[in-house]
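Q: Could you fold this chain for me?
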Amino acid sequence: MALAQECLKDVFRTAFKIDLDIGLVVVLQTAGRPGNYNLHMHILLSSGGVTPENKWHQISYIPYEILHRKWQFHLLRFLKTHLPPSPQLKSDIDKAWKEYPAGFVAYVQKGDVPPGGKGVAKYLAKYVVSPPISVRRIENYNGKEVSYWYHDHKTGIIQHETIPALKFIGRMVQHILPKGFQRIRYYGFHGNVRYQPMREKIQIMLPTKHPADTGGYRVIPRKKFRDLSIQTYGRDPLKCPGCGNIMELESIWHPKYGLIIDMAYGRERFEDTG
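A: Sure. Below is the predicted structure, expressed as structure tokens.
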């Protein structure tokens, strides 16, 4: 997932001869429409980037051919660097270069950037909180087999499938990610650490009047956890349940990293306890 930012920055650097600071939201999707294991990513990219001269550069075109070749380069280099070397790995990488001279597939429409961000965002929001197959797609269960349907995006028609119940369960549970694994990750100036200062900086760079964009989303200021808790649950998490006073942060201690924040020092401290 981290390759997304590195790859796209390389694409813009190669195509436009400019090193842009960009923002990305990367969502990992493991399920294909039949419920099979089909690993791929969806990337929501900022509509522009910040130049080294601290100016906003609008992105209105993504070079299709360059993106495919750059994705191939970064992915194969990543595999070569992070996997144990073996004759089979070398053979597979060499084969990938020879059989795909135009690069790997990255689903971006040719021409101007389409106003499809809004539709993709709605789809991803639904995906990350839903199972691989919704209950309404299950047509029958007789105690031994499960019948369900899915819309095949290649043929464009509805496909029906009946498989043993245990195989169906296996298809579903394979999409459960390891504990603590983050399906949604933020990179560049969308990262949590950089988000607020960069948003204020970019707001100054942007023109006063934004062009109408009915197909995309604009990033709005994130509400703080305290405000969200009050709005959602009607409870202030900083209010002491005993005395009713507002609590103040003094320190944060982590069992692995030790003392992370100590307000007595007026700053953050990072101590690696090993």
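A (continued): Residues 268-274 have pLDDT under 50 and may be disordered.
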